[in-house]
Structure formats: C-alpha cells, structure tokens
Automatic annotation (TrEMBL):
The keyword Cytoplasm does not apply. This is Phosphatidylglycerophosphate synthase. One of its GO terms (biological process) is phospholipid biosynthetic process. InterPro entries: CDP-OH_PTrfase_TM_dom (IPR043130). Keywords: Membrane, Transmembrane, Transmembrane helix.
Length: 228
C-alpha cells in the first residue's frame, strides 16, 4: 500500500483491533512476507473459488460450495492483512496502491461470476455478470471521488465486505439445502435471490457514493468561493 495512506483512506474494520488479528499480522510481518504478495494471493483464492464453482456446475458436488465460501473468506483475510502488514508493519511501498486495488477488481468478478454457475436459470448468469460490473463500478466511483479530492467513501449498503458476506451466506445455505433437500423445489434458488439483492444494493451504493462526491465537491467549491 502507498506510504501516504492514512486511516481516513482505509476501510474501517473493527477486526483490526483484535488481539488475535494483530498477532497474526505480526507473525506474517516477521516472516518476510510482503503486503504486495498478500494482495496477489487474493487473486489466487478468487481463481480457486471460480474453478470450484465451475466444477460445481458440471459435477454438482456440494462440497465445492463450501470450498468457494472458504476461498471468499480467505480473500477477505488477504485484504485485511495486506493493509496491516503495510501500515502497521511499516512495509508500505510507492507502488503498493496498485497491488492494493487491482487484485480486488479481479477477485470480485471472479467470485460473483463464479457463483452464477450455481443458479437455476440461464438468466442467472446474466444476473451474475451484471452484479460483477456494478461491483467494479462501486469501486471506480470511490476511487474517482478520491481523485477529485474527497475522502475514500466505503459506504454500502453493498460494499465489498457486504457483497462477500452475502455470497458466503448464500453458498452455505445452498449447501445445507442440497444436504437436507429442504426448499429445493422453489422457482428460484438462494444464489439467484442473493444476486438480485446484490445488484439492487450495489446500485444504491453507487448512487449514495455519487451523491456524496457531488455534495462534498460542491460544498468545497462554495467554501473556497467564500474565501476569495
């Protein structure tokens, strides 16, 4: 991550203050692992999750749903520890922001499109692609706002951690449904419902972030005008 990054430009996560989390970060920091390497590992987990869902499409092995859920959580851990090692561990680099942001733009679509393989209807994959595109758009709007002088805006209701939590929950529910046979005859499955919620929530997120940028930039311009 970039050495100029401060707490205002980092996603607010209470888990950073956990004693266990901090001990793990210290262990990673002491084993000559760089934050950029951790960031790249998030792509590896996303690719594994995508492959697991592709396998589920062809073989319908429910254990692959749990593999994908585990990959999602592992990706989030990478997102957590790359920042902690970079900032708290003092290993930030000038090019770190590339590694901090670009892997997320790859990992999000891989996971979201991947779960599309578990939908019941052909339209489910189109829905997954739409969610993936809008997920990237939410991040683009945040970065655009920062380039225009606003603080990084991580608001939801469907920011990255919300999207990944929704997918994880849906995968676990689908696994349990397959295991027990409960509610398997519904016209749509839990993955399709989760994708609908994600798409609508992501669109609201985009709108809220755009409004924030507009109000912040216009408010700053008015204040500057008053000073002249």
């Amino acid at each position: 991550m970039d050495p100029k990054i401060n707490d205002a430009s980092r996603r607010p996560l209470a888990v950073r203050q956990s004693a266990l989390t901090q001990r793990i970060a210290v262990w990673i920091n002491n084993h000559d692992i760089t934050p950029n390497q951790i960031s790249l590992m998030s792509i590896v987990f996303a690719a594994l999750g995508f492959a697991a869902m592709l396998g589920y499409h062809f073989f319908a092995s429910s254990v692959l749903l749990l593999v994908t859920a585990l990959c999602i959580q592992s990706r989030l851990l990478c997102n957590l520890f790359d920042g902690m090692v970079a900032i708290e561990g003092g290993k930030s680099t000038a090019s770190g922001e590339l590694f901090n942001d670009v892997p997320d733009r790859i990992a999000d679509p891989l996971f979201i499109i991947g779960v599309g393989f578990a939908t019941q209807h052909e339209s489910g994959m189109y829905l997954a692609w739409a969610c993936a595109l809008v997920a990237v758009l939410t991040a683009y709007i945040r970065v655009l706002g920062v380039s225009m002088g606003t603080k990084a805006d991580f608001r939801g209701p469907m920011a990255k951690q919300h999207r990944m939590a929704l997918l994880t929950g849906a995968l676990v529910v689908l696994f349990l449904q397959n295991l027990t046979g409960f509610f398997t005859d519904l016209p749509v499955n839990i993955i399709e419902l989760a994708l609908v919620v994600m798409l609508l929530g992501s669109l609201v997120t985009c709108w809220r972030r755009l409004v924030f940028i507009y109000q912040d930039v216009e408010g700053t311009a008015l204040k500057d005008g008053d000073k002249q």
